[in-house]
Amino acid sequence: MDFEKHLGLHTIIMLRDVIRKWWQVELSWADRHGVVHDWQRGEIVPPPNDFCRMSLSSKEGLRRCGQSVKVLHEKFKAGRKLRRALFHDCHLNFTIVGAPLYINNEYEGFLFVEGFARQPLTARDAEVLKAKMLQFAPPHSDLDRAEDRVPVLDGSELSKLSDLLEFAVTEIANHEVELARRDDPLQSLSSDQSDRYRFEKIIGRSGPMMEVFRLMEKVANSDSTVLINGESGTGKELVARAIHHNGPRKDMPFVVQNCSAFNDNLLESALFGHTRGSFTGALRDKKGLFEVADGGTFFLDEVGDMSPALQVKLLRVLQEGTFLPVGGTQLKEVNVRVIAATHKDLSELVKRSEFREDLFYRINVIRLQLPPLRERRDDMPVLIDHFLRKHHREGQRARGLAAEALAILGAYSWPGNIRELENEIERLLVLGGDLETIPAELISSRIRDAVVPGGGPFIPPRAHGKLHEAVEALEREMIQQGLLRTRYNKSRLARELGISRSNLILKIARYGLDKGLPEDEAEVNEA
Predict the structure, then answer these.
(1) How far is CA 51 from CA 144, 188, 193, 482, in A?
(2) Which residues in the chain come in under a pLDDT of 50?
(3) Cβ neighbour number for residue 401 with a 10 Å cutoff
(4) Are 479 and 493 in contact (CB under 8 A)?
(5) DSSP string, 338-373
(6) Distances from the Cα of 496 to the Cαs of 20, 112, 136, in angstroms?
(7) Most buried residue, 123, 222, 355, 372, by CB count within 10 Å?
(8) DSSP 3-state assignment of 424?
(9) How many CB atoms lie within 10 A of CB 463?
C-alpha cells in the first residue's frame, strides 16, 4: 500500500507533531514485508536520539535497525491479525512500539516509533550502549552528551503512545473504506461497521453517534413517523435525509419545510396548497408540499413553532392521510411519511398547553435524540479532518491545525454545534491557508475568549477520546516532567520540546507550573 497518500491526513499530521514535540521521537512506517522504504531511499529524518541517528547513518547500523523493525513485523504476522500495539527492544536495547494496519482484513504494514528507553539509563546500561556504538559512531563522537539526550517513556507514557498509534491506523483504515465506498456508489450504507462511520453525510465515531446510527438503521426501512430532537446545528436534516435515502421511499420525493420560516397564512398555503381566488394574489391553483411529497417523505423542521390551528390540520394528515387546501372544498388524499424535528422540548410545551398532546403522541412514535457537539468530542478529530478537506482550495498549503489550536477547539462548548465548527474551519483555511500549520492565534476571538476568559491560563478540560486525552493532558504532563528532569532549565527544555523559550514560558505560566519555584533558582538554572 502507498502510505505516502495518507501523510496529508489531518490525523497523521497532528500525530507526527504531537509525538515529535512531546516525546522527541519520530513516526515511521513499515510495509507488509516489514521494510521501511524511507530508510532504504536514504530519506531519514534525524531522530533526537543521537545513538539512533548515528546508527541509521552507518551501513551496518542501518541494517541492524531494519532487522529490529522486522522482528516487530514478524510479531504482527504471527499474531494472526492482532490489532493492538506491540513493542520490543532493538539492537541497541531501545524500545520500538508499533500498531498494525489492516485494510479489508488484509495486513498492510504498521506505524511505529523507535529509539526511546523505558527507564533512565543506569551507569551499566550507558557503558554497554557506548560499547555497542563504537562500530557505528563516527570518530570523536560525544557519546556522553548523547547519553543525556535519550528520550525516556515510562509505562504510562508508552501506553498513551500506543493508544495514539492504534487510533492513527484506525483512521487510515476508515479513510480507505470511505475511498472504496466512493468508488462503488452501489455499496449499501448499512453493510458493516465502517459504513456507520459515515452514514450518508453524517460523520461520527463516538458512542452517542453509534447509538444514533443503530436506531437510524432500524427505522429507515419502516414507514413510522419519526421525531428528531436536537439543538440547532446538530444535523437534524441530514439525519432525516439519511433515513429517507436508506428506506423504501428513496426513489420518491424528499420535501423540506421549516415551520418557523413563515407566518400562519403562508405556512398553511405552503403545506396544503390553495385554490384560485382563495386570497388576494392567488391567481391559480397551487399544490401544497404534502401533495408534492406524495409517496415520499416530508421533513417538517422546527415543528414546535407551529401554531395550534395548523397543529390540528397536521394531525388530520397524520391520522387520516387527508387535507383540505386553502379555499378548497374537496379533500385530497396523500401517502406521506412524516419526519418532524425540533430543538424544543415538546413535552414541556404540552404541559404549558402550547403544543397539542394528541399531536405530540402522534409524531413521537420513534424519537431520535441528536447529541450536541460538546457531548461527542471524540468526533472532533474526524470532523475537523473532514471540514479541512471539504473547504480546502487549490493553492492553499494548510495541512492541519497546531496542537494548541486543536486543544482550544476541543475545550470550546460549541453552542452552534457542527454548523459553527464547519464555519470556523472554513474561516481558518481562508486566513491561514498559506501556512503549513494553522496556529491558535487565528481562531476566532469569541472562541478564544470563551476558553481563556480575560487572557487567563488555559487549562483544557478532560476529554473522552484517546486522541484528545493526549492533546489535552500530555502537554502539561510533558512540560512538568521536563522541568523536573532539567531542574527548571527552560532553555534546555524548550530545545528538547522543539518550541521557543518564550512559548515554553507562556505554557508554564498557563498551566501554573511556575508556582512554588523560587525566582533565584530559575535564574541560576538558566545560567
Answers:
(1) 11, 52, 44, 20
(2) 183-198, 456-457, 460-470, 472, 516, 518-527
(3) 27
(4) yes
(5) EEEEESS-HHHHHHTTSS-HHHHHHH-SEEEEPPPG
(6) 10, 21, 24
(7) 355
(8) helix
(9) 19
Going across the sheet that includes 106-116, the strands are 27-30, 106-116, 95-103, 86-89
Q: How far apart are CA 109 and CA 1, in angstroms?
A: 8
Sign of CA dihedral 110, 116, 117, 123: positive
CA distance 106 to 505: 47
**CA distances from residue 450 to 228, 444, 454 in whole angstroms, order as listed:** 29, 10, 9
Task: Provide the grid cell at 37.
Answer: 522504504
DSSP string of 476-502, one letter each residue: HHHHHHHHHHTTS-HHHHHHHHTS-HH
Kindly state the cell numbers that stand for 487: 531542574
Rounded distance, CA 27 to CA 7, Å? Answer: 11
- Measured from the Cβ of residue 394, the count of other Cβ atoms closer than 10 Å reads 4
User: pLDDT tens across 314-363, in order?
Assistant: 999 999 999 989 888 889 999 999 999 999 999 999 999 999 999 999 99
Contact 511, 480 (CB under 8 A): yes
Neighbours of 223 (CB within 10 A): 13
Alpha helices in 184-307 (DSSP H): 193-197, 207-220, 236-245, 264-272, 289-292
Count the neighbouring beta carbons within 10 Å of the beta carbon of residue 312.
12
Residue 209's nearest CA partner among 37, 464, 487 is 464
Q: Is the distance from CB of 400 to CB of 432 less than 8 angstroms? A: no
| Total-model pTM | 0.54
Task: Read off the pLDDT of residues 366-399 as tens digits, 9 standing for 90 and up.
Answer: 999 999 998 888 788 888 888 888 888 877 777 6
